[in-house]
Design a protein that fits this description.
The chain is an alpha/beta fold. The chain has a single domain, classed as 3-Layer(aba) Sandwich (Rossmann fold), CATH 3.40.50.300. The protein is built from 10 helices and 9 strands. A 9-stranded mixed β-sheet has the order 2-3-4-1-5-6-7-8-9, with helices on both faces. A hairpin with a 4-residue loop joins strand 3 and strand 4. Helix 1 packs across helix 2 (46-56) and helix 5 packs parallel to helix 8 (208-217). The N and C termini lie close together (9 Å).
């Protein structure tokens, strides 16, 4: 089978675990522990190497500064020779919030959006807010409610939908089903969520509006669960299991069918397989 090179862009707000996943994935790729391995020199690994140092000490990594925007590009390959560039815009996730609030996509983002063949969106269900709407509170239930003015904030699922719509527009992809990038969704910090359903069922239950938007826009989005660390870590207190066993022995993914795998490269490999 001939090699086919593509680009996968990772997207996630602050606090969803991008850096922890990146650090754990980097170790797997460099050691060849999984379905993928590095296929050359990666660029700008400093944030992930610093996170690995923290994990080696049994501590959680620090948050990425808001002002940082340095792409880290990882060339990867699978056993069949399929190649891809895994692109980490190593930014403070607050920049995503700024994009939504300002309704402006910076030039740096527009370039990456246009070049990417696939997007991998990281969502942490536990930190999403579900606002009331006509589905959770029908109009008839609002009779007699106070009419006092109060600030209304959009729900997190509405914000995520708006973000994806802006990215589609910025990339000239709106209404172009033939040019849509492949889409994957990783539900992060799975160990903290105490979810016993499949990732798709969890997304449907927690963020139904977003799930409906994804199904209506992408024919077959990939939805998986992720626990990059397998347990919460403190930025100060050391987890001695991590110290004695090594971070590479922790972390797992939940496949679309709800089964568990310790191969943290599986979501990236599944995205890469979409191009075969």
């Amino acid at each position: 089978m001939s090699a086919f090179e593509s680009s996968i862009l990772l997207i996630g707000e602050s606090g969803v675990g991008k850096t922890h996943y990146g650090a754990q994935l980097l170790r797997r790729l460099m050691n060849g522990d999984g379905r993928l391995r590095m296929n050359g020199a990666a660029t700008n690994l400093e944030p992930f190497e610093a996170a690995l140092d923290s994990l080696n000490e049994g501590r959680a990594a620090g948050h990425t500064a808001t002002s940082i925007y340095v792409d880290s590009v990882w060339p990867i390959i699978d056993a069949d020779g399929h190649k891809a560039e895994l692109v980490w815009p190593e930014y403070g996730g607050e920049q995503i919030k700024t994009i939504i609030e300002s309704r402006r996509v910076p030039d740096t983002w527009q370039t990456r959006i246009g070049a990417a063949d696939a997007w991998l969106l990281l969502i942490r269900l536990q930190q999403t807010r579900i606002g009331d709407d006509i589905f959770s509170r029908p109009l008839e239930n609002l009779r007699g409610s106070s009419t006092d003015n109060r600030e209304v904030q959009p729900s997190d699922q509405a914000r995520l939908i708006e973000l994806l719509q802006m990215f589609l527009f910025a990339g000239g992809l709106s209404g172009r089903s033939d040019r849509l990038p492949r889409l994957g969704v990783l539900l992060t910090c799975w160990d903290e969520a105490a979810i016993e359903t499949t990732p798709e069922e969890a997304l449907n239950e927690r963020l139904p509006l977003l799930a409906a938007f994804l199904r209506s826009t992408w024919k077959t989005p990939l939805i998986m669960g992720l626990s990059a660390l397998e347990r919460p870590l403190s930025p100060t207190a050391r987890d001695m299991d991590y110290v004695s066993q090594g971070p590479e022995h922790f972390g797992y993914i939940i496949r679309p069918d709800g089964t568990r795998s310790n191969d943290l490269t599986a979501p990236i490999h599944a995205m890469l397989s979409m191009f075969a």
